[in-house]
Fold:
Amino acid sequence: MTSITQLRMVLVLILGLAPLNSGCAPDPADPPPQSKNPASQPPGAKTGGELAVSQKEVATDPEGKPVVLFQLSNSHGMQVEVISWGAIVLAIRVPDRDNHFDNVTLGFEKVEGYFEPGPYFGAICGRYSNRIADGAFSIGDQKFQLATNNDPNHLHGGDRGFNRRAWTGKTVQKDGAVGVALQLVSPDGEENYPGTLTVDVTYWLTENSELEIEYKATSDKPTVLNLTNHCYWNLAGAGNGTILDHQLTLDCDRYLPVSDTLIPTGGKTDVAGSPMDFTSAQPIGSRIQQVKGGYDHCYVINAADGSLRPVAEIHDPGSGRVMEILTTEPGIQFYTGNFLDGAAKNGGYPLNGGFCLECQHFPDSPNQPDFPSTLLKPGETYSQTTVHRFSVRTDQPKKN
Ligand code: GLA
Structure:
């Protein structure tokens, strides 16, 4: 990084950003910073200020600790907001084909909304995201019984997962990106999981209009771990109807069939010829009525080998917005917001008001020897990288 860039970063940190919004509530009406550098923009993107990051305390959590809001922006005007509580992504503002910026990830209006159990908006889920059958697993001869908070199974870390913990955070920077590095130390026995676990999650906003999520974790005893980010997306803008018109492509020829309580039954089923098939672009809603309860399934990523590979593309024909997802993980849970019901505790969003594509290992892996292992031993480092890349397509007229 050049010294000029470093100087700019320091100034940004001292002076703060142009206000993104007054509080934490995403406000789509907020304009992005003004254009300075019109070069190398993705189509349709307005230029913004410099690559910038700032932080401020915005609330006090139920333990009396400060909740810190981190605001990231790039020179195209893309903005990302993250809070230390739950390592939650509050808002992501990206342009549509007419350069109108909207927040495309669902969330609560007030930070306090995230203190109660909820739909995991924007959060890092752990220790074990997704389900463990009956909350039970063994490591060697030792049996562990976790909370069965999604009766009869364990879900997203238990009664109080990583989504409702106070993380610590600091601003970071590298060439072409600014970020926030968050850390959580989960004590041995927390939620009945073994081992003191140290988790580091860094959210980067890049000049290529990507949200890049880097995860690392270590444990001092053998434990199980499956981390994911639980953003709900609506590329038309959060609160702007359903996602049933969004076109989804998944590089997945197979998915994991599940029981009535959403535990994989073992084996992998071909998607070909079924409503599960998104190997070519399909509207999310075109066959959803044929899937009992809506989509809530883990897809098997083709040829996953631990390297970063493209797995999903979502296009909203109405706005022209496109999101691509790349990941190092073997699975991607596709969930169509089936439990959203308009209730305030669920953010007021309607059924199918957002979708999740959660990159992760397979559900119930600790009990399924044929699945890629989720065991983390002392001396090993868990690592995951997942990238959300935003752009716009101009090949279809805007719907009225
Ligand atoms: C995951 C699960 C869903 C649901 C949501 C949270 O995506 O697969 O069944 O529990 O989290 O509401």
